[in-house]
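Encode chain A's predicted structure.
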Amino acid sequence: MRQLFVQVPQGSGKTVLEIAKACKGTNLAKIEATGVDRSLDLVLIHVSNGEVEELLGKLEDLPDLSVTLLPTGVMSLHPPADAAPEQVTNVEERSPIEIFLSGLQSTGSWKGFLSYAFFAGIIVWIGLYTNTSYLLVAAMLLAPFAGPAMNTALATARGDFKLLGRSILRYFAALSVTILTTGLLSWILQQQNPTSLMIDGSQISSVSVLIPLAAGAAGALSLVQSDRSSLVSGAATGMLVSASLAPPAGLIGMGGAIGRWDLAVNGLFLLLLQLGGINLAAALMFRLFGLSTQGSRYARGKRGVFPAAVGVSAIVLTGLIIWQFSNSPNLQRSSLAQRANSQLQQVVKQSDLAKLVESNVRFTRADNPGDDILLCQVYVQRQPRVARSAQQIRTDLTKAIQTRLLKEDFKATPLVDVTVLEAPRI
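Encoded structure for chain A:
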């Protein structure tokens, strides 16, 4: 439920009341008031979120119309008294005009916006440099990427080319500040080698595209939902969007500063994947909830902008996915490592020599570019009544695992370390 204050010239208040009644308004009141230079009618209206757009559209023809829309939900109670529970639980999504105008409000100060991007870059750098994962979470909360991301999607859904250009500019300005900050810090402190958290962050999964799609849809849904209709806070969904963008931005800056262009390329791939996925999912979600190119108090939308922008996002996303699956194992290391681990465990389970205790598989890079290593660490326990020595078990399992991994063609050299653990003898 939304509350509106409508100001019209004196004598037009009755017309406003009639329009409000037609839009199922409640707790209506008309007050004769005095403006700065004339007398006017002030009409107080309470109307459901879904009726706000229609109400404003019907009021547009009134002369000298002024409207104040309160952006927070209110509880409008009216007779009969026993209907109060139904009245307060009738919560609808925000109106399209409210969603759009709230997005426009966030395109304000550049100074504060870029300052947050700078501070987020510092926190991202410290987290990656010191292998402190909780600092990455703090940077995700601080990074201001969710605002321009959602505004880009809003502009796409509304077909607003002007807002689209302005949002993309803010988008890339913030990302550039974060990238430059992390790169500059690595250069000043003469960082030479990547940290383990940087290496882990560069490991890309074949299902990475699902993250920006989920982030974009969740971010749009957060803006669409009314204040009290969701238990998920806007900060949480904003963090999800920033989680898709802040670490890759830091990886690009730090990887470039230390000359590890393979890490920078992986970070750039992730960044572009997030940008395309978030915009595609969020724009479609906004359209699903009623945002269109034209609406009350909004006539700037162009019909051709939405299909063009969505098409570009889809093409970028498709191109990146094709690049990912044609560039194995570089852009699929995380998924391939999981698959290799599964193959390894099958080999051990099929063996009568030992039973699996634990296994870890990860990709590493040798000094020569393109010479990838699949490092496998396997811990097994001798099966009962097996007479072979620990060295023989180790040799046989190592050969069997390497044979299986080479057969699967992971495009990497499998290096296997099998450790045979002995149970305590009492």
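The longest helix spans residues 161-188.
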